[in-house]
Write a structure and sequence with these properties.
about 55% helix, 12 helices, alpha/beta, about 300 residues, 5-stranded parallel β-sheet
Length: about 300
């Protein structure tokens, strides 16, 4: 009897030790505590040169007018106070040499002279904002992280929606695009400032709307055995995941604050990636530019 009690106590002791060991391992291999997180100043923007490549076609904003240029100076100075040590932009990663050459020209006060591309090189947010901040901070390089090896079969997806007679989805998609386009156009017509337009594109509500359109609605498109919608979403994720991967690989241990300037829909997805990484913290544009910004 005593022997059986001893065996029982021994088994309980072993079980307690094993459970404690498992808990220790779970703690060791689980989410680790981070003392100081790297910060990414994530700025979602519209394309200043308005190339018309996005699904939602909006009116142009005159980025070269004096008021906009004054605002860009204010934005650059405010971002400069944040002191990012690296700046990442929506430029093809495998064309970094071209971006380096353009940045050197910018530093010398020279715009790239090509009449066919002058609209892009004079107005694009990379040159108007990212280069401005980088030059102000005397950074040696601006990093291109875009990846163009993906597709975005929106028209094909909408064709499947129509074929599948998913009128509710078709109406929802078209209405959301229309609401955004008309709302943004109205802000431009009313003379909204560049800062306020940018603030609008960096709100939680816009990020949620963008992610809903790109990452949730497509999963419902078509019959069970048609995957055009999930394929579109997977391609969208792939492009943004590749960008987020490059950001992390290029950033060194000494970089505690970086800046990422991308189209607002890209920023919305990458904001989710940042939130899932315990070593990183997202600083939003609206954290830097509060609600007291004048129109």
């Amino acid at each position: 009897m005593t022997h059986n009690i001893f065996k029982a106590k021994l088994m309980i002791s072993i079980l307690v030790i094993v459970m404690a060991s498992c808990q220790t391992k779970e703690k060791d291999y689980g989410v680790k505590e981070i003392g100081s997180k790297k910060e990414v100043l994530l700025i979602g923007t519209f394309h200043y040169n308005n190339p018309g490549a996005d699904v939602a076609k909006t009116k142009s904003f005159d980025i070269l007018k004096s008021e906009a240029q004054d605002e860009l100076e204010k934005m650059a100075k405010k971002i400069g106070e944040y002191k990012p040590t690296r700046i990442f932009v929506e430029w093809e990663y495998d064309e970094q040499k071209d971006l380096d050459s353009l940045y050197r020209l910018y530093q010398d006060g020279i715009y790239f002279d090509n009449p066919e591309l002058s609209n892009f090189y004079q107005k694009n947010e990379i040159f108007q904002l990212a280069f401005r901040v980088a030059d102000m901070l005397d950074l040696k390089q601006v990093y291109g992280i875009d990846y163009d090896g993906t597709s975005f079969p929106f028209d094909s997806m909408m064709h499947v929606v129509s074929q599948s007679e998913q009128e509710h989805l078709q109406t929802e998609i078209q209405q959301m695009i229309q609401d955004f386009t008309e709302g943004f156009d109205q802000k431009i017509e009313e003379g909204s400032s560049l800062i306020n337009l940018t603030r609008y594109l960096n709100t939680d509500s816009f990020f949620r709307l963008s992610n809903h359109i790109h990452c949730e609605i497509p999963l419902l498109v078509g019959p069970v055995d048609n995957f055009i919608g999930p394929f579109l979403t997977s391609e969208w994720y792939k492009r943004n995941l590749y960008m987020w991967s490059m950001i992390q690989k290029i950033t060194s241990d000494s970089d505690q604050r970086i800046m990422v300037l991308l189209g607002s829909s890209h920023a919305a997805v990458i904001n989710e990636f940042v939130a899932m990484n315990p070593e990183w913290k997202s600083i939003r544009f609206n954290d830097i530019f509060g609600s007291d910004i004048p129109k």
